[in-house]
Amino acid sequence: MPVPQRPQRPPQSRPAPPRRRPPQGTRPVRSRKQDERPRWGMRVATGLSVLVLGAGGIGHALVSGLEDGIGRVDPFKDMKNRPQGGHGTNLLLVGTDGRDTITKEEKKKYRLGGAPCHCTDTIMLVHLSADRRRASVVSLPRDSYAEMPAHTDRTTGERHESHPVKLNAAYAEGGPTLTVRTVENMTKVKIDHYLEVDFTSFMKTVDAVGGVEICTARPMKDAYTGLDLPAGTHELNGGQALQYVRSRHVDVAADLGRMERQQKFMAALIKQATSSGVLLNPVRFREVSTTVLGSVRADKGFGTEQMLALGKAMKGFGPASSEFASVPVGDPSFPVKGIGSTVRWDAEKSEKLFADLREDKPLAPPKPAAGAEKQAAGTLVDVAPKEIRVQVYNGTPKDGLGRSVDEALRATGFATTQAPLNGETRDRERTLVEYDPRWDRSAKSLAAALPGSELKPVKDQGPQMRVTVGSDFTKVHPVKAESRQTAGDFSPVRGDEVVCP
Description:
Helix content: 25-40%
Largest sheet: 8 strands, mixed
Shape: elongated
Distance between the termini: 32 Å
Number of helices: 13
Strand content: 15-25%
Radius of gyration: 25 Å
Structural class: alpha/beta
């Protein structure tokens, strides 16, 4: 028996910001003490955009001076007993929680108060296939249970033996080198390049490409970050995008849900960068590249020549060329004495995931045929069709209409009874959806597949929806659920599956 859903509060009435322009009617920042660290981990998207922005085949003269702005680190110094290299290229994208370049105005506007922990806020492992036709992005939860290798603390100089920690603490104790060592020990994937990016470049990059389009099936509000988006399509500027990718108080999925939104945003950024003309306009390319690289730290081996080689190989790269996954989780709240609650990976599933990366295999299912892909690009809804039970009634004199609607709803993913009935009346003009108010989110998701239908609450009806087909019925519109991530769910997807339809 499905768990009753709590009715949501109606979304605040506020116009969505117009495309390519600053949003109108922005709500003033409420005064309240913030005790949470900034969650702006998606700035690692800027690191990936370094690769995407090279996909236009821009000449050496335009990029030869860009690497002068890159900060250099040596994350592979004195590393021994590393995993064997596989096919393709592996990059570790790291976002730290430093905020030295954030202005007081930005801290206030985007609620970035609090002291930094000098640790990694987000870690993503990016694998570029050997043929440069695919980028696989795997999110590593920052609270992952990790066994840190023996090392010398970079702050105290104290020698530490191997000990358990949360993954994001590796940076605080040993910087980029210990972070790379810890990730390699956990994944058995050899890291070829290291990219570390900051908050400022994230906002400026989003603004430089003209904003990024995000779709949400439900209103999203987070009092900590100030995020306040009604359901629908939104063009986010740099500051708004920052709020979107930081927020982890919009649903019960917390950090796992936040990682999914970060991946969704990265796919949208790739889409924008590859479709907005940035790659074909040398002036805009240099502007965006300068913005991105101005606050990136990278290993000494990642420079202009590598960017040009990747850019040439990745020409034609787009959202469908990318795929996203999170490490499969076995226990999202694994207690460790002296550390607290950690995220314990599912050993068997995560081993398979990283084996596929090492062997240069795709993570997401093959791209569907044209007809199936069209259906997959349906309207975003709050509740997955497979979770919605439906009984269909024919409210018209047209024989067989009930069965046709039942089959169409089932083909779209709804759990129909496959036994349509005749309605109490056979002269209904408008299609009717009757539902128990406790399952109002399911009812709205079903109504999205039947545009123009009438919604009628019926107390104590139970979880099953009743659809009485009227003479206004034309066809069932395809819909798909927005959320795909649940604790421990592998579920890799392609970038074109998570961007706006």
